[in-house]
């Protein structure tokens, strides 16, 4: 029988937790443990979590309180290790800024894993506000060192309803058989945030595992609810980590092309940035080229 570890990393997540807990509680599959890996522990969050647990029927929950913000990658690893130690056969990595309207999301994805032997399963993901597609599968563009989302920002369409194997997906809602971690390893904690999921998925594919896209499962994603894509935090980590990812995973001409492409395209970012953003971008590019691999 499947037992699932639901791993989510909290960081200033108070505003999204009510919908998140309701989504978990409405699932018909109940053999799970919810691991809340908390990177921003405070009394207000504790009260909200306690209230959510009182209002929603959650099978089992562990609130793991970190003394500091250890990042998304290490936070996920803390939850994954605990789930594996607790005997979970599957890990579901999920953001807490998601909402699930279907009560069969867990069971549908597990059926694919259990009955069809799919190692990694991802759903169709929509923007919460607009209901346009955020991701309907994807592929890894090595030359750009970029995960491409199929259907990005498009209205839903029957052409996105074909289950298929893909080469890239973010980990904001990803069901993973526990054996994948034995061969591909855990998240690389050096990323802290951003590109950690790209790196994990790339290593999993390189290790022989396949990602299966199941459009019958639909998730709503409140994208960038905690950081935002124009913040200096995002600018620094996304750019530093992109270069680290390239240097870590690519070799030869591909490696140098991807680095060159990254520097060339950042010229256009620099032109539209304000002084603080420009400073953070330059810092990220410099450190990305020397960050220990």
Query: What is the C-alpha radius of gyration, as a whole number of Å?
Result: 19 Å
User: Major beta sheet, specifics?
Assistant: 10 strands, mixed
Averaging pLDDT over every residue, what do you get? 96
| Classification by helices and strands | alpha/beta
Give the strand content.
Answer: 15-25%
C-alpha geometry: globular
Summarize the structure.
The protein has helices spanning 17-25, 43-55, 72-85, 105-116, 178-184, 196-206, 232-249, 252-272, 275-288; strands at 4-10, 32-38, 61-65, 90-94, 98-99, 120-127, 133-135, 138-141, 146-149, 164-166, 173-177, 211-221. The protein is an alpha/beta fold and 293 residues long.
Your description of this structure?
- With 293 residues, the chain is α/β, with parallel strands linked by helices.
- It has two domains: 4-221, Spore Coat Polysaccharide Biosynthesis Protein SpsA, Chain A; 232-288, no CATH class.
- Helix content is 41%, strand content 22%.
- The protein has helices at 17-25, 43-55, 72-85, 105-116, 178-184, 196-206, 232-249, 252-272, 275-288; strands spanning 4-10, 32-38, 61-65, 90-94, 98-99, 120-127, 133-135, 138-141, 146-149, 164-166, 173-177, 211-221.
- Strands 1, 2, 3, 4, 5, 6, 7, 10, 11 and 12 form a ten-stranded mixed sheet that branches. The chain has a two-stranded antiparallel ribbon with strand order 8-9.
- Helix 7 packs parallel to helix 9 and helix 8 packs antiparallel against helix 9 (275-288).
- The longest helix is centred in the last third of the chain and has 21 residues, at 252-272.
- The termini are far apart.
């Amino acid at each position: 029988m499947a037992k699932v570890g639901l791993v989510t990393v909290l960081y200033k997540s108070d505003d999204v937790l009510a919908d998140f807990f309701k989504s978990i509680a409405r699932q018909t599959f109940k053999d799970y443990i919810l691991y809340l890996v908390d990177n921003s522990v405070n009394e207000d969050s504790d009260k909200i979590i306690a209230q959510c647990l009182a209002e929603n029927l959650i099978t089992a929950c562990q609130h793991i309180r970190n003394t500091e913000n250890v990042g998304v990658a290490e936070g996920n690893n803390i939850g994954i290790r605990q789930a594996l130690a607790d005997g979970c056969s599957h890990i579901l990595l999920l953001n807490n800024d998601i909402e699930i309207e279907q009560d069969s999301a867990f069971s549908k994805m597990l059926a694919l894993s259990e009955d069809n032997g799919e190692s990694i399963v991802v759903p169709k993901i929509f923007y919460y506000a607009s209901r346009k597609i955020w991701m309907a599968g994807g592929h890894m563009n090595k030359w750009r060192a970029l995960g491409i989302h199929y259907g990005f920002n498009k209205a839903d369409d029957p052409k996105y309803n074909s289950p298929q194997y893909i080469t890239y997906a973010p980990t904001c809602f990803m069901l993973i058989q526990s054996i994948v971690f034995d061969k591909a390893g855990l998240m690389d904690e050096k990323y802290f945030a951003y590109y950690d999921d790209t790196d994990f998925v790339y290593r999993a594919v390189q290790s022989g595992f396949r990602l299966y896209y199941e459009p019958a499962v639909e998730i709503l994603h409140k994208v960038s609810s905690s950081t935002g894509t124009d913040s200096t935090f995002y600018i620094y980590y996304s750019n530093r980590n992109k270069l680290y990812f390239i240097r870590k995973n690519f070799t030869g001409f591909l490696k140098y092309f991807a680095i060159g492409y990254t520097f060339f395209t950042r010229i256009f970012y620099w032109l539209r940035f304000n002084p603080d953003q420009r400073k953070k971008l330059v810092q990220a590019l410099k450190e990305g080229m020397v960050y220990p691999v």
